[in-house]
Amino acid sequence: MTPGTTPVRLVAEFTARPGDEEEVERLLLALAEAVRQEPGCLDFTPHRVAPAPRLDGEALVGAGVGLAPVGRRFVVTEAYRDAAAFAEHLAAPYGVPFNAALGPLIEEDGSQLTFLEVRA
Fold first, then answer.
1. Sign of the C-alpha dihedral computed for residues 40, 97, 69 and 114 taken in this order
2. Mind listing the pLDDT tens digit for each residue in 26-84?
3. Do 8 and 86 meet the contact criterion of CB atoms below 8 Å apart?
4. Integer distance in angstroms from the first to the last C-alpha of the chain?
5. pTM of the prediction?
6. Cα(24)–Cα(17) distance, rounded to whole angstroms?
7. Which of 94, 76, 77 is nearest to 38 (CA)?
8. How far is Cα 84 from Cα 106, in angstroms, rounded to an integer?
């Protein structure tokens, strides 16, 4: 990272329509391969919401945790060197085709983005 630059960190989330989970995952994993090659990409890690952990058959967390649709909700953690690197990511030629293919497969009107600040 260049001194004096502020990384752009975010979480992108979306929910696959029932029956489209595997196609969403396929598209997302293909996108990840391309994004990780961007010079300003520090992190691009897809996740799929999983059930809460259990130990000896007992839930380790109480009710109200893990309300996202298990198996259908996708969360991507992303980090870019700085705002310019994030702008380059947004302009990448594979972004428009990915979003066009993803749109009909998810419940939202596109990825829901949440920008983050590191607090140490």
1. positive
2. 999 999 999 999 999 999 999 999 887 888 888 777 655 556 788 899 999 999 999 99
3. yes
4. 18
5. 0.88
6. 9
7. 94
8. 29
